[in-house]
Amino acid sequence: MQKLGARAVLGLVWLLHWLPLPVLAALGVGLGRLLHRLAGSRRRIALRNLELCLPDWPQAEREAIVRRHFEWLARSLLERGLLWYASPARLRRLIHVQGDIGHAERSGAPTMWLVPHFIGMDIAGTASQLFQKRRVATIYQSQSNPVFDRAIRRGRLRFGQGDVYSRHDSALPLVRAIKRGSVFFNLPDMDFGLRDAAFVPFFGVPAATLLAPSRMARSLDMTVQPVVTEMLPGGRGYVVRFGEPWTDWPGDDAEADARRMNTWIENEIRANPSQYLWVHKRFKTRPEGEASLYDGWCDGAHADNPAP
Question: Which of 57, 250, 269, 296 could crosslink 301 through cysteines, CB 3.0-4.6 Å?
């Protein structure tokens, strides 16, 4: 039954990708408003994250951000079908690349793209295979449902220009791919515990932050280029912005590099707060002896009252 349900969902996503993007976007907004009402636990996680990260913002504004966040989140789920099934020509019309996406291709040097968890991050993966020619390697979280897992892998590899490696496997195949010339599409801003991480401020709150991006970039002498995505309202498409390569990162101190990386992500979030992935427990791991920042908040003890 689980596999049958997954195939039905994927079939619906495939059917929806034929719709004009403005229509598909409107459906996503409607679904997001429904999910905002129904997904109480995730809604409370998002509100708690915003309270921790943006305490000076009015509560009503934080609640409005969460409502918009669910609309963008639902859109990203429905519009995944475009990334997986739409023609390259259609995707090139919808994806607007800003900045120097060809830097890695021209330089030939080992390159890391730092891509924080904005809702449209998968669009950057598609753009990286449509608008430049170097292979792209990334790490992904394998799914418990094998049907969804195959669909995600197939969708991300559909243009034959990428490789994906499970987060649970050894890093050696990824390192070999980078040495062979693949660009590393790195998602550096989730809480995976304290393995190869340190507590570094994120909006002033100690957050388990990976040190691996800095250490890998230094050991492989990589160029590091920041990449940020944005979904445009009204079905106008997507923006993928490739920033200027960082000239002083990594340094000699991986923890200082992580602090600078978090500061950059904070600034990007402030510019587009509703499209950051707030439903993830970014502060799940705590320093020894410190209480959870979510207990009592995400189980309904501090139940929010979303506006109708």
Answer: 296
